[in-house]
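In the design runs reported in the main text, the only information available to the sequence generator was the tokenized backbone. The following block is the verbatim input for one such run; it is reproduced so that readers can re-run the procedure and compare outputs position by position.
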């Protein structure tokens, strides 16, 4: 299974160096994908078994785009995966589905595997709009790449009301969404993300369609993370 670690905007240079050592000591057969901040990508030790990912990419090619980091630049640092469409960026940076479609296209051009985040807000869930929202997010994100390339994309279902809140959906809710996604995209790996931790993994792992996890808070706590992967 996949365990993707989203460090978000955490860990300064020295903190990251010692964090990486702790992470490398975690003994697991699961596929670990680390998503550090852009600066920490440059400090990553490529001799480990951990795969390298970015948390974001520019929708543009190299050129006059101040403050952006291109897919070509990520590739030159051996980045193999990249998160796109995370709900924090959709909210804080007002990223729209069309921009995410451009990012998807840039990553596919460079052979970087996109980890596409989708998921509904609390309000959308309360109004039974979750499938409509997820369908739209997926369709637009995939609109600029060809069918063969869509199969390479890792989809991460992250209900926004679950991210960082300590609340996780019921297994019934997870199974329902995973079935919906897999009915439409049967070839794609689908991760669950949102407050997954060493305590609720026992419940989450009963959901047989889950191909792995995208972990935020837990990614920063190597000993608890180690407990999590052992229980997976
Ligand atoms: P969380 O974050 O595990 O802290 O809820 C998940 C994410 O945002 O990817």
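Verbatim output:
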């Amino acid at each position: 299974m996949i365990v993707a670690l989203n460090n978000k905007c955490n860990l300064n240079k020295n903190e990251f160096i010692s964090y990486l050592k702790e992470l490398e000591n975690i003994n697991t057969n699961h596929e670990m994908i680390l998503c550090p901040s852009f600066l920490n990508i440059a400090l990553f030790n490529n001799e480990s078994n951990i795969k390298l990912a970015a948390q974001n990419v520019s929708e543009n090619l190299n050129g006059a785009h101040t403050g952006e980091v291109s897919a070509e630049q990520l590739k030159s640092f051996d980045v193999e995966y990249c998160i796109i469409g995370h709900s924090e960026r959709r909210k804080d940076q007002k990223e729209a589905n069309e921009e995410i479609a451009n990012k998807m296209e840039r990553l596919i051009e460079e052979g970087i595997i996109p980890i596409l985040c989708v998921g509904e807000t609390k309000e959308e869930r309360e109004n039974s709009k979750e499938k409509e929202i997820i369908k739209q997010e997926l369709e637009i994100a995939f609109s600029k790449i060809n069918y063969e390339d869509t199969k390479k994309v890792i989809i991460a279902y992250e209900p926004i009301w679950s991210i960082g809140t300590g609340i996780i959906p019921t297994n019934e809710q997870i199974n329902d969404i995973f079935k919906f996604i897999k009915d439409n995209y049967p070839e794609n790996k689908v991760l669950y993300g949102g407050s997954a931790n060493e305590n609720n993994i026992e419940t989450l792992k009963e959901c047989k369609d889950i191909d792995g996890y995208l972990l935020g808070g837990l990614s920063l706590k190597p000993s608890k993370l180690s407990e999590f992967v052992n229980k997976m």
